[in-house]
Sequence to fold (154 residues):
Amino acid sequence: MKLSDNWFTTVTESDNGAVMFVSGRDEVDAFMESGKLRERVEITWPYESDAQGMPTEEESMRMEAPQEALRKAMEKDKLAILTGVYTGDGARTWVFYTRNIPAFGERLNQALAPFEQLPITIYTEKDAEWNEYREMRTLCGDACRDLLFDDDEE
Fold:
């Protein structure tokens, strides 16, 4: 399976009405259908936000290096793939799908070891049907319909 680097970005609202920027990965059908990545990991980094709930430029830049370190570490052998990044309402959340939570945790610690302690929380859940990913895809409207519906289901 080949992992593309094609992404979509959309704007939505959080549960409390704050602006939320969502970046989602395209072309992951083969990974969903393989049934190998059955666990979802959400890593959330809360930040001091501006009036619109967005991070300062400095904080945004501070989050980039750990994000890239995690992505490279997890995707080098497809232990996990980054499928979505949510930014807004005072937090950035990275969503990964993985095949092994303990291995993910070990690799996360290795990837983040060079950085000072980060203010992150980690949440895991079984999501073999990729429900979170499918819900995220609905945010991008008609452009994402091909993934969500077969021709005979429309």
